[in-house]
Specification:
Layout: H1 2-20, H2 76-83, H3 105-108, E1 110-111, E2 114-115, H4 125-138, H5 140-143, H6 167-171, H7 174-183, H8 197-215, H9 223-241, H10 247-251, H11 263-300
Antiparallel strand pairs: 1-2
Helix pairs in contact: 4-8
Amino acid sequence: MLKYFFLSFFLLIVAIVAIAGFRGHHFSEPPIQLFDDMDDQAKLKSQKPSEFFADMRAARSPVDGTMPMGYDIPAETYHQEVANRPEKIRVTNFKTREYTGGPDYLNTGRMGEVWGDGIPVEITPELMARGQQRYNINCSVCHGLAGHGNGIIGKFGMVAIATYHDERMRNMPDGEIYNTITNGKGTMMAYGHQVSLYDRWAIIAYIRALQVSQNVTMTELSPELQEQLKAQSTAATEEGETPSETPAEESGDAPAESGEPTGSEEKGADDDAAPASDEAADASDDANQKNEESAAGDATE
């Protein structure tokens, strides 16, 4: 009985070695595959011919508007350009877009081995408006609309949110902020996959504007802005000193059209007259007292 066991065991080992032991070796005949493990797939390989398509090519032209990985997200004008092309033009013109995976300062925020400083794109009103829009969408939820780190997410347990108005952030190079937006840092996630290259620089320009707005002095403003702020301050002061509503307006009564005073006006006039009479009486008493003192002095002499 034992010899049959060893014989069966030996035959099993031979079968396993025969089927799986020579996997990877080159043979003149195709190997026997019990489980192909997706070694052979019904697919088309690049740069190979294919009889399925009319042009006999397995590799297909990209769909109009397709952008390769690493290129900037197309703008609306670019989509419009593609839409206006004749149907016979099948290949997208990639030269109209700039590659965003280069090693330069624009793409990395680095100048050699250090973080660079400065905005490498032209700062225009349009760029600032774009930066404000992108900031409000992507950044304000944590950092707040003014950059104080008091965004709404702080109410749901997020702590240690950076404020842009402390000394460290004001002195941080623009390139380091760009890298943080692109790759993330600490609890901040990376936004490089959803915020395009130029939008990142637009956000940085807007952040710098926020920092200036919260730390500017009056002398740093232009003369026009200084005059405007002074006029606003004067108007606010005068508004605060002027009574907002009269008793007649509060009660809803219309003011009398004739020149005769109303009852409330007569009462107000009496109230004004009473202090005036008291002041006159006090002044008269003071004068009499002075005269008496002067007369006493003369008598003593």
